[in-house]
Amino acid sequence: MDSKGSAPDPVPAVGMVGAGQLARMTSSAATALGIRFRVLAATPDESAAQVTADVVVGDHRSKADLMAFADGCDVVTFDHENVPGPLIEAMEAAGHAVRPGSRALKYTQDKLAMRERLTALGCQCPEFALVTGPDDVAAFAAKTGWPVVLKAVSGGYDGRGVWVCQDLPAAAEVLGKGLELIAEEYVRFSRELAVLVARSPSGQGAAYPVVETVQKDGICREVIAPAPELPPLATAEAQGLGLSVARDLGVVGLMAVELFDTSDGLVVNELAMRPHNSGHWTIEGSVTSQFEQHLRAVLDLPLGSPTQASRWSVMVNILGGDDPDLRSRLVHVMAADPAVKIHLYGKPSRPGRKVGHVTALGQDLERTRERAWRAAYYLAHGTEEYT
Amino acid sequence: MDSKGSAPDPVPAVGMVGAGQLARMTSSAATALGIRFRVLAATPDESAAQVTADVVVGDHRSKADLMAFADGCDVVTFDHENVPGPLIEAMEAAGHAVRPGSRALKYTQDKLAMRERLTALGCQCPEFALVTGPDDVAAFAAKTGWPVVLKAVSGGYDGRGVWVCQDLPAAAEVLGKGLELIAEEYVRFSRELAVLVARSPSGQGAAYPVVETVQKDGICREVIAPAPELPPLATAEAQGLGLSVARDLGVVGLMAVELFDTSDGLVVNELAMRPHNSGHWTIEGSVTSQFEQHLRAVLDLPLGSPTQASRWSVMVNILGGDDPDLRSRLVHVMAADPAVKIHLYGKPSRPGRKVGHVTALGQDLERTRERAWRAAYYLAHGTEEYT
Asked: Cβ contact (<8 Å) for A301 and B330?
């Protein structure tokens, strides 16, 4: 991987900062396309580090580690949002191709900047305000009513950094944590949707079908592709929103937009600029997986077709149960349904931890959902009684 | 991977002897299922060694190297037929789970034993005879006519070790090489077919759709799944043959049976007991890829569904052309057809060398073939004029 003093290697090398399951699944997509793939892992036993030939162990908060990592890569990309902005800028200043770049990534790291920018772009967002004390929250609640959602401006993920406060004492407790916070209107939605788009440095864009996502305790449980009974106009609106936000923010790579489906239309909840849990179904359910698409985009290769390969795709996350021995149950799930696709991330199971996912494809939605749920739930809990 | 002196690791480890493209593609299937995967590579830059976290560099003809490799694996399997039989037996004698085992593998390493056994099992084979000199060949040709096919009893692959002799002087030249040879009747066929089956230690079997394969100079160029216009009875016959041969020979894992389609029915050409070029289309074209299926089989997990995911799947191998710089042409192929699936093996391109493959899925056979051929040919040669 040394780029110095030798003839240029025609095979591009993509380096991904972070070695979780997103990097693990990206690794297989790189293998298929003959792309060299390197991960920066915190420890050698992380999910992607277990299966990637080129692993650099280092700290994503260390400038020295990041710069050394980037030195061997043609393109640097990310499996999480936790690299400090100034370090991303430092890699760019040193001449590295960082995709997405710091200009785009700041909107995933700073929720206030994201809200301000999306509102300026005309996207429907919840009411929001920076709050520094109980008076601010009280004033905000006077406009929007209770509950009020408080969010950490930076560092949230999978429900962490988000608090739904029913009253001022609850808000005061969150304020006491000493974090920079915004208040957001509590949006009453009928369901949650997500749209995944890709954008290349050349400006090519591609949008996947809009999906319905089911969250519990802030963690994604299920994704249904396409979102059932979503009117074509709403699909077009969501895809157009994703593509135009990606362009306006200068995103390169994948971007997922999480949306609330409300009686007043689609409201933007969150943005992520990387492969996303709402897109795991694309491995089997789309002509081009989100992981291949991300690699194509960051390498400025023409994007692949985001077309669905089946009428319905349903993905259910495997969240660890009380008994961590998933593997002993694998045989039963495989025997019960030889067509369900099981993905395990190589992570030790702990209660509530995402340790894998299951995807089922089919013609009948309820049957497909049932297959995915039964498999995922049995793997985690050893029972099919998932309802 | 050290199995001594520590608590048993619940994640099974499959070791594959050989690190070519078959091992490379198996590696990604292992990643998805959370199976630890280790390869024995001749050099650290082999196709699979580039992308596998756990690589042991060693010689597959060395007993010490094989035994050391097997020590860290729950199951040992193979990406080629070149491990000497006595060394496979030595691994078994030492208590290692070798799948397929020596009893089955000998039929892929000894063409005379294969012909004798298949004939005894009632499979239609070409006429054959062991030949040690020109008199034997002349006597054989008196029965079957010229040309006569001479085959090395062991060590052949991709057209190597096979000579079509038009007359006795040509045969004498081959005999002069000093190899152990069999003579085979030159079978006049309308086309070549292949059937891929899987079998587990528990005896579960699964058969993929029968495919048509197109060879040139002994090298597979194209695979069409399913074989066009193959009567249902012939499909059932081929699948039944594959499953019964796998059972009778005690195969564990995948087995491909190459067949001639003749006016007298199906004639067995060759056997392979591993993932096979005729099954690469299954990565996108089947619910379960052959690589996942092989892992399930050797681990005695329930087999996956071999159902086709699309009406037609066409795979065309990328054989290197005069200009080795495939990668500069990748952008054009991806732009021309965003739905074609490109697989590159990380091997330097040389004229005629298999360096990757392309798979296209579709509803219309001729259009699907054209898409796969154009992409594969353009990658190799920089022209679409492939006919």
From this structure: yes
